[in-house]
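Hey, weird one. I pasted the Heat-shock protein Hsp20 sequence into the form twice and got a warning about non-standard characters only the second time. First submission, copied straight from the form history:
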Amino acid sequence: MNRTNPFDEIEQFLGRTTLGGDRMWGRDLRTTDIDVAEYDDEFVVMADLPGYDREDIDVRATEGRLTISAERGADPEIAESEDADRRYLRRERRHESITRSVDLPGHVVDEDASATYRHGVLTVTLPKAVDEAADGHRIDVA
């Protein structure tokens, strides 16, 4: 008799991989998609964060690593007072938080980094650190 694990069938139906824990369609459920671009004098990281408020996004650059965290969801006190007056027929929206870290491909000036958030896309601009050794040391001719 061939016995199957019913949870394997559920994971297959949902499109989850059997290797990666909480992963669906090849990506972590608690993360965000990002692009990293390099320009002559800066790196630009773009992250999809639809539905988050600007105040709920935290961006940190430390020692060549950029970390983006965001959290959204109803305030528990407000949700409880609202729930007393209604009966949900379906409730899928919930508290959600994500964190994504990426190693930057070069040295940056953390203090001069900037970020903007428009239309659900976070754009972080990180100026490259000037590597004076690459140009060598100039020697004045007397």
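That's the output from the first submission. The warning seems to come from a hidden character in my clipboard, not from the data itself. Strands lie at 23-24, 27-28, 34-38, 42-48, 57-62, 65-72, 96-103, 114-118, 121-127.
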